[in-house]
Every structure is written in C-alpha cells, then in structure tokens.
C-alpha cells in the first residue's frame, strides 16, 4: 500500500464574499451620489463595476504567484513603482500626460484609458518589499541583538522614505501617511526590541503633540514645520469649520450635516437633500450616512472589521513569515484608509483626500486594493495542506 500527498489549493470564500458585498454597497451608494447635478449624468456605477471586473482579473493573476515567486518579483515591482514616481516628479506641469489635477501632480493620463495613480500601486509594492526584507533579516540574523534590530529598523525606514519623499512633492500628504501606517504596522510585528521602539516612538509622539499644540494655539508657527498655505486652510477648517464654512471648511460642514441629518435609519435610498461635492469618491461615507443613517454606516464598518478579521486569520494560519508580514501590511493599509476616511467625514480628523477602500469611486485605488486582496488570497491558496490518498 502506498500513500501519496496531494496539495489542495483553497480559495478563501469568506474574503471573496466580503468583497462582493462591498462591491454591491459601492454600486448602490455611487448610483445615488452620481445623481447630483455636478456630474452631468456620468455613469460612475458602470465605470466602477468595470474597474471591479479588471480588479478581479488582477487578483486572480496575483493568486497564481507563490511565496518564492513573490519574493523574486518584489524588488522589481518596487523599482518600477519608484521609477514612475520619479517621472512624475521630473515631468513639467504643462505636460498633458502628467498634468496637475486638484493641485497635485499624481497621475498619468492615458488617452481613452483614464488616469493611473502610481502611488496607489506603490503601497502594495512597498508591502511586498518590507515583508521580504523583514523575513530575510530574521533568517540571516537568528541571534538578535540591539544592533541587528537597529539595522532592520533602518532598512525598513529607508524602503518607506524613498517613495514618501516623492509623494510629498506631488503634493499628497494623505497617501504619504498611509505609507507611514504600513511602516508602523510592520515594525510592531517585526520583533524589533522595545528598547529601540519606545524612545523612537515617544520622540515621534512628542513631536506630533507639539505640532498639534502649535496648530491649535499658534498656527502661524507651522510654516517652520514645512506646512504650506493650502494646508493651513485645512487645519483651520478642521479646528473651526463653522468659521470657514464658506471656503476651506465647506466640505466638512456639508459632510457633517449630511451624516447628522441621516440620524438612525437614514432618509432612504435616493432621498438626499444635502449637496456634497465629491460625494462619489472621498466623501462617499457622507452619502451613505445621509441615506442609510447610523445603521447603514455601522453595517459598512462591520464589513471592514470582518475583512480585517479574515485577513488576520489568514496571516496567523500560515507558517510562512513572509506571508504573515504581507497580511500585516495589507491590514495596516486598509485600517488606516478606513479610519482616516471616515474620521475626516465626521470631523474627527483633518481632510486628507484619501478614498474609502472598495467603496469610493476610483480605478487606481480599487485596483491596488484588489491586488492586495489577491496577495492575501494567494497565502491561503498556496498554503500547504495535504490530503492523503491510499492505493494498493
């Protein structure tokens, strides 16, 4: 009698179902948002569903790559992404291929195909490289010391700083903060000693608290921290939106009015009364809050919690550290996006202009998030679980 081991590829249908529910939610809310007069009858729902279709194809493609293959391509993808950011940085503002939009030079405009935002894909490429570097470091330095931990922290920091510098130059502070969140998430699970992390993060927290104190009490001093005039307006509108509701605080005031007027159960699908700019993209949660109220918002937030739980479970189940670090990076990215986007619509955080994952309209954002989900599904798909079959 002989025994043969057969690997069983397995798709995580729980994650697939959660993404499908988010797709439905996205289509429903965008359909309502696009009825606002400012969009001139543009069918954003159809375009979003097309992007979901392309994103699904991307995710299926990514699933085919196992751990070894992902390790091999990670640095190449990172290099391509960084090169695209450098091209955006060097390109003249008058060049139609990379023209400024909403004050930022962040997109490549491809005729008949739309706009591509390299920084969105760079987030996923950075997660791959951070995971590879961290996993390889622990293989090389089995015996950990403060010196080896500091070296790992330095490597992770340099990997993140490179794209952040060019993204800040676009300027795009919101996306830059996502990279910081990914870095922090990776550092916390990397095994670096707290003897290094406590003083470093204490210093960063102190600096952040100082900047916040200055922003509230002596905002004119923020120019010494590199804060630009347009960013002053965002800070002012966040701290006192009522005073600036005619200009910089207009979106925040309309957003809070829309969400507040939805109350517990909302006004019903399509029954919007509050005019809200960008209600199909960055401020889509405002549309959801007005039409479906606290109940609708809670259901959507619960879906995000479910997705994060599912990714966490995948990361804990695998015995491959590289896969686990990928899951941590994806969790950090999605969590920060959700917290920042919803936080800015209710006035809890300043407006930074980052979308709500899987819900806001936007091709680059959706494709990068679907690519990240493809990486997570790849972990489960290539997880080495075996079925034993016997034959005589």
Automatic annotation (TrEMBL):
It comes from the Bacteria. It is found in: Membrane. InterPro entries: Cell_cycle_FtsW-rel_CS, FtsW/RodA, RodA/MrdB. Pfam families: FTSW_RODA_SPOVE (PF01098). The keyword Transmembrane applies. It is a multi-pass membrane protein. The chain crosses the membrane at residues 12-33, 45-63, 75-95, 107-130, 150-167, 173-189, 196-216, 292-310, 322-339, 359-379. The keyword Glycosyltransferase applies. Keywords: Cell membrane, Cell shape, Cell wall biogenesis/degradation, Glycosyltransferase, Membrane, Peptidoglycan synthesis, Transferase, Transmembrane, Transmembrane helix. This is Rod shape determining protein RodA. It comes from Siminovitchia thermophila.
């Amino acid at each position: 009698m002989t025994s043969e081991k057969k690997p069983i590829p397995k798709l995580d249908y729980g994650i697939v179902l959660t993404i499908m529910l988010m797709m439905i939610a996205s289509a429903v809310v965008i359909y309502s948002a696009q009825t606002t007069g400012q969009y001139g009858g543009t069918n954003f729902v159809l375009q979003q569903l097309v992007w979901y279709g392309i994103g699904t194809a991307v995710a299926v493609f990514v699933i085919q790559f196992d751990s070894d293959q992902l390790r091999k391509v990670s640095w190449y993808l990172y290099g391509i992404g960084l090169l695209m950011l450098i091209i955006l940085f060097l390109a003249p503002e008058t060049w139609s291929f990379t023209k400024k939009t909403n004050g930022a030079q962040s997109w490549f405009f491809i005729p008949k195909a739309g706009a591509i935002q390299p920084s969105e894909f760079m987030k996923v490429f950075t997660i791959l490289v951070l995971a590879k570097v961290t996993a390889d470091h622990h293989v090389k330095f089995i015996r950990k010391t403060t010196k080896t931990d500091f070296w790992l922290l330095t490597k992770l920091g340099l990997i993140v700083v490179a794209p952040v510098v060019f993204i800040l130059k676009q300027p795009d502070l919101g996306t830059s903060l996502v990279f910081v969140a990914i870095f922090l998430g990776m550092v916390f699970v990397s095994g670096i000693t707290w003897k290094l992390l406590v003083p470093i993060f204490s210093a960063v927290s102190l600096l952040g608290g100082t900047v916040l104190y200055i922003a509230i009490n002596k905002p004119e001093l923020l120019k010494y921290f590199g804060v630009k005039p347009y960013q002053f307006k965002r800070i002012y509108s966040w701290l006192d939106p009522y005073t600036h509701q005619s200009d910089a605080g207009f979106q925040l005031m309309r957003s809070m009015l829309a969400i507040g007027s939805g109350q517990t159960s909302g006004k019903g699908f399509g029954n919007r009364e509050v005019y809200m700019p960008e209600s199909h993209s960055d401020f889509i949660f405002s549309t959801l809050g007005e039409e479906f109220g606290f109940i609708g918002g809670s259901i959507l937030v619960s879906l995000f919690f479910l997705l994060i739980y599912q990714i966490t479970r995948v990361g804990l189940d695998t015995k491959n550290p590289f896969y686990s670090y990928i899951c941590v990076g994806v969790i950090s990215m999605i969590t920060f996006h959700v917290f920042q986007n919803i936080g800015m619509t209710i006035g809890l955080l300043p407006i930074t202009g980052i979308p709500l994952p899987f819900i806001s309209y936007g091709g680059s954002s959706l494709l990068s998030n679907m690519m990240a989900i493809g990486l997570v599904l790849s972990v489960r798909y290539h997880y080495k679980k075996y079925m034993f079959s016997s034959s005589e």
